[in-house]
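ok, trying the design again with the full structure, not the truncated one.
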């Protein structure tokens, strides 16, 4: 039997909530993905490396800058891409990554919105 709240078991049913989230569920998912991407030391270091360069950085150069294997770096880069923090351009066998500066501003806005 499905247990549904009713006015007898839950006196708050039918009463308007005092506090309403100002963030939609969809926006919360997007923002959580962004913050989750930033919540890893390796990804922060990759982002720091990329942000110091005006242009693109070859994935080979990123791997050479760390003591991690290429598949691990690629995994972290994919998470950063999925969050919209970095993007890449493929040229032959290599991928060249760069920071999406607009997304860094968006990340700052998300954090400022929580303050």
């Amino acid at each position: 039997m499905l247990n549904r709240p009713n006015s007898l078991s839950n006196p708050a049913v039918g009463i308007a909530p005092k506090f309403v989230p100002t963030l939609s569920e969809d926006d919360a998912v997007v923002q959580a993905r962004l913050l989750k991407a930033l919540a890893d030391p390796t990804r922060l270091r990759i982002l720091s490396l990329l942000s110091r360069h005006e242009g693109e950085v070859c994935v080979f150069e990123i791997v050479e800058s760390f003591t991690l294997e290429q598949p691990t770096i690629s995994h972290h880069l994919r998470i950063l891409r999925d969050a919209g923090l970095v993007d890449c351009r493929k040229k032959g066998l290599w991928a060249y990554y760069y920071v999406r500066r607009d997304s860094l501003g968006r990340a700052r806005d998300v954090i400022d919105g929580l303050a």
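Keeping the full-length input from now on. Residues 29-114 form a domain with the Arc Repressor Mutant, subunit A fold (CATH 1.10.10.10).
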